[in-house]
Write a structure and sequence with these properties.
Blueprint lengths: L1 E5 L4 H12 L3 E6 L7 H10 L4 E4 L5 H10 L4 E4 L6 H6 L1 H21 L4 E7 L22 H19 L4 E7 L1 E3 L18 H9 L6 E4 L11 E2 L1 E3 H13 L4 E6 L5 E2 H12 L5 E4 L8 E2 L4 H7 L7 H14 L2
Parallel strand pairs: 1-2, 1-4, 2-3, 4-5, 5-6, 6-11, 7-10, 8-13, 9-14
Antiparallel strand pairs: 9-12
Helix pairs in contact: 1-2, 1-8, 3-5, 5-6, 7-9, 7-11, 9-11
This protein binds nicotinamide-adenine-dinucleotide (NAD) and uridine-diphosphate-N-acetylglucosamine (UD1).
Length: 329
């Protein structure tokens, strides 16, 4: 079976390429390196000992997409490509709507032209907005608070309409909670060039001395220690969820991919310090606008229908995130 992986040089896409190759799938990857580096291609090949075809370019380029589908018999598409920085999306909404929506529309259209009917989409827990209760189930009401989140919700709506028009399609929408960690080899992981918005990349930069101090955004939330609680999931567990999704496609489906456990900012900081034997300086800062107290998944549907469960602990996530950055300094 041949899978087209869009955005396969990125953080989650690269880990999924590794799992696909390890499981014997053939892959074809497209990426424009707008948020990743060319060396990831060789690193995936080193980890797996397997080769694959790579196309550099923008998915909005219909001519290139057609060429890919003509040169390869694609059975299914995993669509990771897109922009993902919440703050940037608020400042540059058109850039986000253009890239996230137009890549998806072009891709779906070209897939149709070539008779490819399996599509797995990277959505986000951000589509649940401010959940009225926890844990979050797939049928909770949907809403968004920023343009990035709105692009995800709009794509979900487009996919629903498309499925109504064409019941032969198999579409699986995966709503990720908070992916962190890295491949245990330390070859691939997440290391943003810009100042990170997300917690784990920031913790790592404080631990390595690149930044002086982590700002903990609020300690007066309604959580066990007052700091924000999230459902952190190891990126390798997340990648494996995509394989399970691929093996169990059946109509239009939605799955939460999370562990079902909530950890606070201070839980993560303390665990990181303990397992890596490093200091993470922090100070309490005001709340970040738009943040919610707590967010964690009910992931039982993915367990029941896909046979998928996470296996990695919060300790593994902290260890692997640090290992990756130390090895790639
Ligand atoms: P990433 O930025 O590391 O990877 C995305 C990849 O897509 C990058 O390599 C980038 O160069 C590529 N890309 C972007 N636009 C492109 C285009 N027009 N043509 C070709 N390539 C393009 O992001 P990630 O963390 O791996 O996330 C993957 C997907 O999962 C994204 O859609 C993201 O919104 C979604 N998601 C991520 C998180 C998270 O915390 N990382 C959480 C929920 C959902
Ligand atoms: C953020 C995005 C969300 C996106 C997700 C994964 C916002 C409002 N939401 O979620 O749309 O899907 O990333 O990419 O940006 N924190 C600190 N100090 C920091 C950074 C974070 O205390 O320097 C806290 C936050 O307040 C939060 C927790 O750490 O309580 C996790 O934050 P983050 O990693 O940014 O993820 P989310 O806010 O859950």
């Amino acid at each position: 079976m041949k899978i087209l992986v869009t955005g396969g040089m990125g953080y989650i896409g690269s880990h999924t390429c590794v799992e696909l190759l390890n499981d014997g799938y053939e892959i074809v990857v497209i990426d424009d390196f707008s948020n990743s580096k060319p060396e990831v291609e060789d690193k995936i090949k080193t980890i797996t000992g397997k080769d694959f075809k790579f196309y550099e370019g923008d998915i909005k380029n219909r001519k290139l997409l057609n060429k890919i589908f003509e040169e390869n018999k694609i059975d299914a598409v995993m669509h990771f490509a897109g922009y993902k920085a919440v703050g940037e999306s608020v400042k540059k909404p058109l850039m986000y709507y253009d890239n996230n929506l137009n890549t998806t529309l072009t891709l779906l259209d070209v897939m149709k032209e070539h008779g490819c009917n399996k599509f797995i989409f990277s959505s986000s827990a951000t589509v649940y907005g401010k959940p009225h209760t926890l844990p979050i189930l797939e049928d909770f009401p949907l809403s968004t608070t920023n343009p990035y989140g709105t692009t995800k919700l709009m794509i979900e709506m487009i996919l629903k309409d498309l499925f109504i028009a064409d019941n032969d399609l198999n579409i699986t929408i995966l709503r990720y909670f908070n992916p962190i960690g890295a491949h245990e080899s330390g070859l691939i992981g997440e290391n943003p060039n810009d100042i990170p918005n997300n917690l784990m990349p920031y913790i790592v930069k404080v631990a390595t001395g690149e930044y002086e101090c982590l700002s903990v955004f609020g300690n007066d939330y309604d959580t066990h220690d007052g700091t924000g609680v999230r459902d952190y999931i190891h990126v390798v567990d997340l990648a494996k969820g995509h394989i399970k999704a691929l093996e169990n496609m059946n109509g239009l489906k939605y799955y939460n991919l999370g562990t079902g456990n909530g950890f606070s900012v201070l839980d993560l900081v303390n665990t990181f310090e303990k397992v890596n034997n490093v200091k993470v300086n922090y100070k309490i800062a005001p709340r970040r606008e738009g943040d919610i107290d707590a967010c964690y998944a009910d992931a039982s549907l993915a367990k029941k229908e896909l046979g998928w469960e996470t296996t990695k602990t919060i300790e593994d996530m902290c260890k692997d995130a640090y290992n990756f950055v130390i090895k790639n300094k």
